[in-house]
Structures are given as structure tokens and as C-alpha cells.
Amino acid sequence: MIIVLSCIQGIGNLAIAQEETVQPNEQQQEASCEAHTEEKDVPVITNPIVFDEKDLNKLLEKQREYVEKHYPNYCIKGKGEEQDVMDGHRYSFFDLENEDEEWVITIRFDIEEAYQAYMKKHQKEIEREAAKLIKQGIIKIE
Asked: What distance in Å separates the CA atoms of residue 129 and residue 127, rounded to the nearest whole number?
């Protein structure tokens, strides 16, 4: 039963990852390449403030509000999440541009704790669904 649940959890995690994966169109890929060439000169501010929020969606909203409030002369050019290969933490980021539409600064926030809580919550949902399917006989354990 544990093996089946592990397989189902893996499939569930894969499905969640696939839902969150967005295939960039050709124009977005070109912009991404341009952004990486510019990235060398763009300063990055990490954790200008730390929020005590465990809900990932609420945390991301508070971070966006913070950036808009404290950097009013800039426009958010891009935002997203990334895994830092150096420390292994997950970060949200906001790429800011000036009035000339030049990417001038990136603000990053550590979201690792809230992200882990989010993933744990969804894994429990998958486990409950798997148990229900087993109980209904839809999934059979041999």
C-alpha cells in the first residue's frame, strides 16, 4: 500500500508540476534570452523585508504590495519563482524597469518555508484522494 501511495504521490506531484509549467512562445523565449544577457548588470536585492506568513499565496501578494509601495517609480517587468542553486532555497522575484522600460533592479524574497508548507498540504490531499480511490476499489493493491 505504501508503494502504491508513493507512486500516486509522485504522479500527483508530477501533475502539479505539469500544471504549473508554462510553455513560452517564441517571443517570450527571445525576451528570456535578452534578459539573461542583461542580467549581469542588474543589481539584485534579496529579502529587503521578511514577512511572517505561512500561506504561499498570501505571502506572494504581500511581497508584490511591498514592491509596489517601496519602489513606486518602477514598473514590475516580470515576476515569478526560482530555485537558487547555491543555497537550495526557493525565491520569488520581481524584475523592475524604469520609465525608459529598462530592466534596472530585481527584488527577491525567500519563500522556502511557505513553499514547503504549500507542497506538504497538496501531498496530503493526494494521499486522501488515493485512500478514497483504494477504498472505492478503483485502485487495487495486489
From this structure: 5
**Three-state secondary structure along the chain?**
CHHHHHHHHHHHHHHHHHHHCCCCCHHHHHHHHHHHHHHHHCCEEECCCCCCCCCHHHHHHHHHHHHHHHCCCCEEEEEEEEECCCCCCEEEEEEEECCCCCEEEEEEEECHHHHHHHHHHHHHHHHHHHHHHHHCCCCCCC
**How confident is the prediction for the chain on average, in pLDDT?**
78
Nearest to 74 by CA among 92, 99, 57: 99
Residue 11 has pLDDT above 70, yes or no: no
pTM over 0.70: no
Write out pLDDT tens, residues 99-121: 999 999 999 999 999 999 998 88
